[in-house]
Write a structure and sequence with these properties.
CATH topology: Thrombin, subunit H
CATH class: Mainly Beta
Helix content: 10-25%
Number of helices: 1
CATH architecture: Beta Barrel
Radius of gyration: 15 Å
Distance between the termini: 33 Å
Largest sheet: 6 strands, antiparallel, barrel
Strand content: over 45%
Shape: globular
Number of domains: 1
Order of helices and strands: EEHEEEE
Length: 110
């Protein structure tokens, strides 16, 4: 049986504005259970680097029913910190036999 891991997602909320009117963000850690972390294949790393300039490290597969915002967020798993990039790919939930129906790409951060 395939099992996911807990991933800490740093959810952003606007805490106010600075003296110049730019938003100030506060990050709150939220643990999301049962997330699959798949290492990126070598050809996918090269292709993503050429297309977007980002170095793909892992692909996270998100559990069905998860409603968190994953775009441009900091995440932590395996004792390391990563940043998500690109849009979240979503599949039709009824057509996916497993427990995961969305995926997001992550790059090494920090």
């Amino acid at each position: 049986m395939i099992r996911g891991i807990p991933v800490t997602l740093y959810d952003k909320t606007q805490a106010g504005t600075d003296p110049f009117g730019a938003p100030v963000w506060e990050e709150t850690p939220v643990v999301v259970q049962d997330v699959l972390a798949a290492p990126a294949a070598a050809e996918a790393v090269v292709q993503e680097l050429q297309l977007s300039g980002k170095r793909l490290a892992y692909t996270l597969h998100l559990p069905k029913g998860d409603s968190h915002v994953w775009e441009d967020r900091q995440v932590a798993f395996f004792g390391q910190t990563f940043r998500t990039f690109g849009p979240v790919d979503q599949y039709i939930e009824a057509n996916v036999p497993g427990r995961w129906n969305r995926r997001v790409k992550v790059e090494r951060y920090g």
